[in-house]
Write a structure and sequence with these properties.
Blueprint (H helix, E strand, L loop, with lengths): L2 E5 L10 H5 L4 H13 L2 H8 L3 H15 L4 E4 L2 E4 L1 H27 L17 H13 L2 H7 L4 H15 L4 E4 L2 E4 L1 H27 L6 E6 L7 H12 L4 E6 L2 H9 L5 E5 L9 E9 L1 E6 L12 H5 L4 E2 L5 H10 L9 E2 L3 H9 L5 E4 L4 H5 L3 E3 L9 E8 L6 H19 L2
Parallel strand pairs: 1-7, 6-7, 6-8, 11-12
Antiparallel strand pairs: 2-3, 4-5, 8-15, 9-15, 10-13, 10-14
Length: 425
Amino acid sequence: MNEISNSSPSSQPSSVSASSLGALPNFRHLRAFAEVAQCRSISDASTRVHLSQPAITQALAKLEEQVGARLFDRHSDGVTATEAGALFLTRVERALSLVRQGAREAVRLGARKGTRGFANFDQLLTTAQMKALVAVSKAGNFSLAARSIGLSQPTLHRAARDLERLSGLSLFEKTGQGISLSPSADALAQAVRLAFTELEQGFAEIEEARGVDAGRIVVGAMPLPRAFILPTAINALLSERPEVRVSVVDGPYEDLLSGLRQGDLDLLVGALRTPVPIGDVVQEALFSDPLAVVARIGHPLAGKVKVTVEDLAAYPWVIPREGTPTRRHFTTMFGGLGEPQGLVETGSPMLIRGLLLDSDRLTLISLHQIRLEERMGLLVPLDVDTRGTLRPIGVTHRRDWKPTVTQSRFLDCLRAAGEMARRGE
């Protein structure tokens, strides 16, 4: 059965939610699994991870139970990864690499405390300690963090302090508002969140290999794609894969970008930024979209030929907030005249529509966002020269993102919807 949800950043579904945090494998088991896969021998791996052979065998059995698939075929001369094991190994290696990189960055950013931490401390981190770090980074409070992942406050506090002891870094500081994370802790927490996301994708890929498409896609949506691009792509995907869960998160670009970089979102859809805002994300254009000045049917300027900037300046406006591409085009459009008085700032299409329909306000918006209202005879574009407002609309994702089969198919659906928009269908 399809599941589609919509939320704001404050309630956005996270790839590292409380429920998923509880289901995460033991990282020591993951390290043992990776070593066994590399060595193709439990006995050889035991010396490298400092676990007995029975302990490794037990760890692998527990891991196979968690993923719901056999990970190794046993032979007289060793073991080999199964198809499911090879799939999961890729995700495990990526997760372990992320934690290792995060630990190195944390050490680089932070001054060591009085007692030096362990070298390569990432290999000593437990799942409980990493869950505690992520929970505190989200909640900013030990009590709230403990409640969010179902632990007692003393247990979570102990895990957090053990993490400081292992790393030799100052990670948590008390403030008047709760707990703040040091730059070292922020770097490590971001890496851990992404590692958790990799593992969740690993679980999803094993399910896909078994013919059970129980994956989830979390999309950050800026205003423009909500009217046509996203509905078209989501409907296309779910017609093929009805068991997929799709969550759409609305919010300001900065919040969505942060969620993307932390692994809470799989991708963003909307107006692209020039230049790319940060080096760890990449953008893919789907189509280019011009803006239009829009008013209600019956507006004094509706039907007027060649509306001038002076005409537009005489009316109040509803526009996006500062920092958005549309707002920059709005400011440029008025040039030396200065922006009109009585501005209302919002990125909500519903609020924009309500303000336009009940007043003589104007807005600068993509025609794709008012497709339905224009067809219903509620809103109309004015005869305004908006050359130079062409904006690339597309997808933003993490540079090192490795989508699952379902996520790749959703990207194809978005590209197809973008092509339809480009052709004006």
